[in-house]
Design goal:
Blueprint (H helix, E strand, L loop, with lengths): L4 H12 L4 H8 L3 H8 L7 H11 L3 H5 L5 H4 L2 H8 L5 H22 L5 H28 L16 H32 L5 H24 L1 H4 L3 H34 L7 H30 L11 H18 L2
């Protein structure tokens, strides 16, 4: 038996059973640190603990020790679920439909001399840098069990990877469908009536909001499934309001900027435009600093503390953000 195999088997079988280290420690009547040491091969469980572990994990002691790997272990439902989780092919269909819409718009708008390069750029960005990239990126994560590049992923946190894969698959499917719908509407509207250009901005704004909400809602609904530890679940839940406030501040700044440019007819390369953009970037920077400060504060928070204290710096940053947005309005 490989000396590292016992620890690897304990960790693998525990995760397949959907158990956290705390649950195993509670059943075994030992500390979580002891379970961590067993899985890291720093120490080995006693004979009595080995028997209890085998009972808990529903395998024989020989299987736990790696001396015998029966077929039913490799074909268990949990392992099948892990091995067979593949990304849906539906996003590829949505990508192909989006490309067809783009080509159709180019042909029809050129024939009727209503082609708009700006509209084409919007559709191109939605289809390729967003829709296509996300599908390829998430597919690589799911197929290769490589999640380190996913935003919010923490290698020190204990995840249920099967559920993480399901969440990524669902997000990918939703974004693919919404991206196609947005590209389709942009192509149809701009081929039918070019006098309602304001509708393009409304569609893009709706798409961005939907994009963000899709990620937030899927993350929130999957919290109980993707995290093993209660403390990690509580931290994830506390970070959601901070994320929502941050996103609202970003959209508020963009909305104020667009409104000011339209209402005051500000030229793109004018001094006024530079001032507005400067205040916008300053406000966004302040909101971003506050967002990361509070997320770091949440990560350091211990769930056994009775009161959660918001970092005062985040309040200062958010007030500064609103003040800078206010300056834009009086230019």
């Amino acid at each position: 038996m490989n000396e590292n195999q016992l620890g690897e088997n304990i960790a693998r079988l525990r995760k397949e059973k959907g158990l956290s280290q705390e649950k195993v420690a509670e059943y075994m009547e030992v500390s979580r640190q002891a379970v961590t040491k067993w899985e890291s091969n720093i120490s080995n469980p006693s004979s009595a603990n080995l028997i209890r572990l085998a009972e808990l994990l529903d395998v024989s002691v020989d299987v736990l020790l790696g001396k015998n790997e029966p077929e039913d272990i490799n074909t268990s439902n949990d392992t099948k679920k892990s091995d067979n989780i593949k990304m849906s092919k539906a996003p590829w269909l949505f990508i192909c439909l989006s490309v067809i819409c783009i080509i159709g718009y180019i042909v029809i708008s050129s024939l009727f001399n209503i082609f708009s390069f700006g509209t084409l750029i919007c559709m191109f960005i939605i289809c390729f840098p967003i829709q296509l990239f996300i599908h390829i990126y998430f597919s690589n994560a799911v197929n290769n069990d490589s999640f380190s590049g996913i935003a919010g992923f923490d290698g020190k946190t204990e995840y249920n990877y099967n559920e993480v894969k399901k969440m990524l698959e669902q997000i990918d499917l939703n974004i693919g469908m919404h991206s196609f719908v947005c590209v389709f509407l942009l192509s149809v509207i701009n081929c039918v009536d070019t006098s309602i250009g304001w509708l393009n901005g409304l569609l893009i704004l709706g798409y961005v909001l939907n994009f963000i909400l899709t990620i937030l809602i899927n993350n929130y609904t999957a919290i109980n499934e993707i995290y093993y530890n209660e403390e990690d679940k509580k931290k994830a839940i506390k970070s959601i309001p901070v994320t929502i406030v941050y996103i609202l501040l970003l959209f508020l700044g963009i909305g104020i900027t667009v409104a000011i440019f339209e209402m005051k007819n500000i030229e793109n390369n004018s001094v006024e435009a530079l001032k507005v953009c400067g205040y916008l970037l300053g406000g966004m920077l302040a909101a971003t600093i506050g967002f990361f400060v509070e997320n770091n504060n949440i990560n350091k928070w211990k769930s056994d503390e009775k009161i959660y204290r918001v970092n005062k710096l985040i309040i200062v940053c958010f007030i500064m953000c609103l003040v800078l947005y206010g300056f834009m309005c009086i230019i």
